[in-house]
Specification:
single chain; 418 residues; alpha/beta; five-stranded parallel sheet
């Protein structure tokens, strides 16, 4: 069967994934209601505005709202299908905090009717889609829930992890292959009808736990590979070898593709998801755990290197270029650059730290309280500084000419000025 969904769809969570998904569906004719607990997010989207920067998203939101296909609300309406796209942070013990998923399930439950589809998109440990079904079953004993081998469920549950890259979301949401894991085969087939509305990638049907695990594994794979690059950078420093040159040469082997060292691994996914695997099977995952530890240690190492350079000056000024978690996005969630700045400022309380980032117009709370940290323009920061630390390779920073950096101590953590 190759059916395509038509009807009304509610998306719970209008963040980096929920909102682009809402736009992808609405601009292809689906009536979408976006639901968010934040009243200001709902108000912004209702005006056709976007609460965060992502290329091509703003035009999609304003178009979908103007066409009357997308509206936002703080209340969960009745719909034919529901997509849950809320955050899944981790708890103190690094297990997954499913409280937002549970709250979403509790909001949907009273609205459920026979024939509805419920898709969990939030990154979740294996077994979570099953849990969502159980939570809803408790609240709605009148509905038949899907069981393998049994026919005739009233509601169909599946997990379809998002896999888009921030900065390329509106492209990748259409072109990437999608994994759709159902609680039963029929559930997967029903959920796939939603993704056929807008996806040009292949839709791969599987069971829910495999889909959940595949997503975690994708990000753990990347984390382990970045950790390898970061470890190489430490080894090269010790041996006085240029790590970028070594990687450039090694990558000319047809089966070698080493990633780039940097000041650490940020964002909401890669530093979080591997812990869900480690907490589910701790004894079996020493490599994944170690990779996390190697990457988490990076901001400390970078800060220590900067401090070691600074003590050679009497009263140096340090420019830190970049605060976001990666290049050309405005997202500072779990950003290692923020940590590096905070660590330098704390280690050198009498030293002025000038921070610049074209995507950030206000210091985050963790830096706003540091009396020796201020936010200035990129060229101002460079001009005034004795030490220039490149933390994020935004295009605007890559364009800074070498002549501008002359006479300064330069620490390029991204290899962007080579
Ligand atoms: N980084 C490095 N060196 C590299 C590559 C990245 O230090 O060679 C750093 C970045 O600077 C950043 C972090 O790693 O701090 C993560 O950046 P990223 O671009 O690798 O990934 P994200 O977090 O933007 O998006 C990832 C993607 N996952 C994979 O590529 C396997 C994306 O496809 C997922 O949808 C997303 O996580 C998610 O939501 O899970």
């Amino acid at each position: 069967m190759n059916d395509v969904f038509s009807g009304r769809l509610a998306i719970l969570g209008l963040g980096y994934i929920g909102l682009p998904t809402a736009v992808a569906l609405a601009t292809r004719g689906i009536e979408v209601v976006g639901v968010d607990v934040k009243a200001e997010t709902v108000a912004a989207i209702s005006r056709g505005d976007v609460p965060f920067v992502e290329p091509d998203l703003a035009v999609g939101v304003s178009g979908a709202v103007a066409m009357g296909r997308l509206r936002a609300s703080t209340e969960t309406p009745q719909a034919d299908a529901y997509i849950i796209a809320v955050p899944t942070p981790f708890n103190g013990d690094r297990s997954a905090d499913l409280s937002f998923v549970k709250a979403a399930a509790e909001q949907i439950a009273p609205q459920l009717r026979p024939g509805n589809i419920v898709v969990l998109e939030s990154t979740s440990p294996p077994g979570t889609t099953e849990k969502v079904c159980r939570w809803m079953a408790e609240l709605r004993p009148d509905l038949r829930m899907p069981r393998n081998g049994a026919n005739g469920a009233d509601v169909f549950f599946a997990h379809c992890p998002e896999r888009v890259l921030p900065g390329r979301i509106m492209i990748e949401i259409i072109t990437n292959d999608r994994v759709v894991g159902g609680l039963t085969e029929y559930c997967a087939e029903k959920a796939a009808t939603i993704y056929r509305v807008f996806s040009k990638g292949e839709i791969l049907l599987t069971d829910a736990a495999s889909a959940e695990m595949a997503k975690l594994v994708e990000n753990a794979y990347r984390d382990v590979n970045i950790a390898f690059a970061n470890e190489l950078s430490l080894i090269a420093e010790k041996l006085h070898i240029d790590v970028w040159e070594v990687i450039r040469l090694a990558n000319r082997h047809p089966r070698v593709k080493i990633l780039s060292p940097g000041p650490g691994v940020g964002g909401h996914c890669i530093p979080v998801d591997p812990w869900f695997i480690v907490s589910a099977a701790p004894a079996e995952s020493p490599l994944i755990r170690t990779a996390r530890e190697v990457n988490d240690r990076r901001p400390h190492h970078v800060a220590e290197q900067v401090v070691a350079k600074a003590v050679r000056f009497r009263s140096p000024k340090i420019a830190c270029l970049g605060l976001t978690f990666k290049a050309n996005v405005d997202d500072i969630r779990e950003s290692p650059a923020v940590d590096v700045v905070a660590l330098i400022a704390a280690a050198l309380p009498d030293t002025e730290v000038l921070v610049a980032d074209p995507y950030v117009d206000r210091l985050p709370a963790s830096l706003a309280d540091c009396p020796n940290v201020s936010l200035v323009g990129g060229y101002d920061a460079v001009d005034q500084a004795d030490i220039v630390v490149l933390l994020v390779e935004h295009d605007a920073f890559k364009a800074i000419r070498h002549t501008h950096l002359g006479g300064k101590v330069v620490y390029d953590t991204r290899g962007a000025w080579r």
